[in-house]
Amino acid sequence: MMVGPTAFAEPFEATYGEAPRCPSCSAPVGPRRWLEPYKVRLRPGTRTDKPGDAITGPGFDGFLANARFESAFNAAGLKGVVDWRPVEIRKWTGPPYRLTILPDPTARADFSRMNIKFNRPPTCPQCQQAIIAGYHGVTIDESTWAGQDIFNLTNLGVLMVTERFKALVDENEFTGLAFERAHDFTPSYARHAPA
After folding, report:
1. d(Cα 107, Cα 13) in Å, to the nearest integer?
2. Helix/strand/coil (H/E/C) assignment for every residue in the chain
3. Is 192 left (phi over 0), alpha (psi -120 to 50) or beta?
4. Domain ranges (residues) in the chain
5. What's the confidence (pLDDT) of residue 29?
6. Residue 182 backbone phi and psi in degrees, to 5
7. What is the model's pLDDT at position 186?
8. C-alpha neighbours within 13 Å on the C-beta side of residue 35
9. What value does the CA radius of gyration of the chain take, rounded to a whole number of Å?
10. pLDDT for 83-111, tens place per residue?
11. Could you give phi then psi for residue 168, rounded to 5 degrees?
12. In whole numbers, what is the pLDDT of the chain averaged over residues?
């Protein structure tokens, strides 16, 4: 997420609240929530120190978006962003960006249809939190997915988008986001693990 051609964002003076929790077992199903006021500094990308239409970074879910991106997302009727909140970008004099606020995760990967290896298998049938050694490819348990075009998974912590979301980005030539097909995705910690 932090390696790309355009600038990425790093929160500063950040405060965090509680993490969303599984209603069955109380395990965290996502990172702790970043609380307002939202402040970031930009870090240079591999090609430029300027941001794209969207800005990602560590310490927050979703991404920051400029007005053109927000407008196109809303006009296309895409789902998954519950709010767009103002964010202060330190030493940035360009147009404003807003933070996408995503709902607490409820969708999960379907481990039974994935080539997954566990260090500790899941014990809760709802959130299916586990300690995972590795996997290649992600399959969604569609019975847990509410049709959002951008969403996090409770049991993998991976941000997913639909083909509709990717098509919006491609058609408008939005910059700042990179995609990998779900069936090709391997987490970074498993990419160089011995077979």
Report:
1. 31
2. CCCCCCCEEEECCCEECCCCECCCCCCECCCCCEECCCEEEEECCCCCCCCCCEECCCCCCCCEEEHHHHHHHHHCCCCCCCEEEECEECCCCCCCEEEEECCCCCCCECHHHCEEEEEECCCCCCCCCCEEEEEECCCECHHHCCCCCEEECCCCCCEEECHHHHHHHHHHCCCCCCCCCHHHCCCHHHCCCCC
3. alpha
4. 8-108+139-190
5. 93
6. -55, -40
7. 86
8. 7
9. 17
10. 999 999 999 999 999 999 999 999 999 99
11. -60, -45
12. 93
Provide the whole-model pTM.
0.90
**Each residue's pLDDT tens digit, 144-183:** 999 999 999 999 988 999 999 999 999 999 999 999 999 9
Q: 39: closest CA among 13, 63, 62, 71?
A: 13
